[in-house]
Amino acid sequence: ICLETHTWHANRFQMIDKWGYKIPYYLNDKSHKASNNGETKYCLLQDIYY
What we know:
Blueprint: H1 6-12, E1 13-18, E2 21-27, H2 31-41
Antiparallel strand pairs: 1-2
Protein name: Ribonucleases P/MRP protein subunit POP1
Organism: Camponotus floridanus (Florida carpenter ant)
Pfam families: POP1_N (PF06978)
């Protein structure tokens, strides 16, 4: 059984089968690679003000 948000989560997370459902397990963190490439080639800024 898949959750209603399965497609959204499947694009962003590794999915596992648990309790008869496919649930998100951990993030496919693609942003680290992009930020590391930007950091080595260009300048990287981070806004930490919330």
